[in-house]
Specification:
There is one protein chain. The protein is α+β, with helices and mostly antiparallel strands. The protein has eight helices and 21 strands. A hairpin with an 8-residue loop joins strand 1 and strand 2. The longest helix has 18 residues. The model has no long low-confidence stretch (mean pLDDT 93). The structure holds adenosine-5'-diphosphate (ADP) and magnesium ion (MG). The site of magnesium ion (MG) has 2 residues, from helix 1.
Length: 365
């Protein structure tokens, strides 16, 4: 089921009574979620992710704009008539019901020709429980399950009616690191197997990048960029997106363009044809640094962390806006730690240049 948001806007009265005006939680969102895809809504806390999801689910009403499921305008429909499955960060299971009863719950109020017999409900519950791999736990109560298992039950309950759209709001945030990784791969598998159009909300860029067909990067209720994860990582439209994606983060320097050359301080670090003379921010991805004794970028060496496959070189530079620069180098290189300085040359496609005034990316030719 394709989902279309059309000029979707949600305003709230300002909670802080001292400040006048209103909060625009979702500001004029227009985009299409293709049928059968998993899209990640990504951005820092407060950027409007949950509000967007609540608008799609119908739990909240938009101030203006429309939502379509396929060709149907569902903007005025209550949640129970939209055919959605919802999963939240806190699993919200019924504590007094078993796993089976929790999964069956949404099936019990089906009416008329959709009404199911007890046997049919049990059969459906088992089928879904197998899909999320909790079919061995059907008679337990939620308190007898781990966090990861509880979240699987919540996912099973959201799937049992075969929703048209599955909506997940930070579903992994309460799980420990290993379970988070495992469960996100599970969600990906289940989504692929069922082919249900899915919206996955997270503030964790790594999570969004790894699980999504497409990510929507948001800030302060405004969409910054939409695209395939790799495409957004490789071609960030502005400084915010460049900084939000990637671990270790991109290193940002103050610099300038003069006559087709890019400078940090007095050092020319690269040629850049096609960008007018101006002050700029220069973002360099950690994998964009090449150890090079004759390289143009000279940094103060602080340490070397050996990670097995890679080495992380930690250094500083007066022109760098963050406390440290983390560059990732293949461990085939031998890095001497007996020096105070380290020199790099740069991979041009890993260096992004942004206007200092608008923070939008400037592309050369
Ligand atoms: P996220 O899920 O990305 O953390 P939210 O969608 O929850 O962000 O919130 C977006 C903005 O809208 C925030 O500034 C938040 O304070 C505000 N907001 C959310 N819900 C309400 C509400 N019911 N009343 C007033 N303001 C709200
Ligand atoms: Mg939220």
């Amino acid at each position: 089921m394709k989902v279309v948001l059309q000029n979707l806007t949600k305003k709230f009265p300002n909670r802080n009574k001292k400040e006048a005006g209103e909060v625009i939680a979702v500001n004029d969102f227009t985009f299409e979620i293709p049928d059968g895809k998993l899209i990640g809504l990504l951005g820092p806390s407060g950027c409007g992710k949950s509000t967007t999801l609540n608008l799609i689910s119908g739990l909240q009403k938009p101030t203006s704009g429309k939502i379509f499921f396929g060709e149907d305008d569902v903007t005025g429909l209550p949640p129970e008539h939209r055919g959605i499955g919802l999963v939240f960060q806190n699993y919200a299971l019924y504590p007094h019901l078993t796993v089976r009863q929790n999964i069956i719950f949404p099936l019990q109020n089906l009416k008329g020709k959709n009404k199911l017999t007890k046997e049919q409900m049990d059969e459906k519950a088992l089928e879904i429980a197998k899909l999320v791999q909790i079919d061995g736990l059907m008679d337990r109560k939620p308190s007898e399950l781990s966090g990861g298992q509880q979240q699987r039950v919540a996912i099973a309950r959201a799937l049992v009616k075969m929703p048209r759209v599955l909506l997940l709001d930070e579903p992994l945030s309460n799980l420990d690191a290993r379970l988070r990784l495992q469960t996100r791969e599970e969600i990906r598998r289940i989504q692929r197997e069922t082919g249900i159009t899915t919206v996955f909300v997270t503030h964790d860029q790594e999570e969004a990048m790894s699980i999504s067909d497409m990510i929507v990067v948001m800030k302060d209720g405004i969409i910054q960029q939409i695209g395939a994860p790799q495409e957004v990582y490789d071609n960030p439209v502005n400084l915010f997106v460049a900084k939000f994606l990637g671990t270790p983060p991109i290193s940002v320097f103050e610099g300038c363009v003069r006559a087709g050359k890019l400078y940090i301080g007095d050092d020319c670090i690269m040629d850049v044809a096609g960008i007018d003379d101006q002050d700029v921010y220069i973002g360099i991805r950690p994998e964009g640094f090449i150890l090079d004794g004759d390289g143009p970028l000279c940094c103060d060496l602080k340490g070397v962390e050996v990670m097995g496959r890679d080495i992380t070189i930690v250094s500083t530079h007066d022109g760098c806006m963050s406390d440290e620069i983390r560059s990732i180098i293949s461990s085939d290189y031998k890095v001497s730690v007996n020096t105070d300085q380290v020199r790099f040359s740069l991979k041009p496609h890993k260096v992004h240049i942004f206007s200092k005034t608008t923070e939008m990316r400037l592309s050369g030719n």
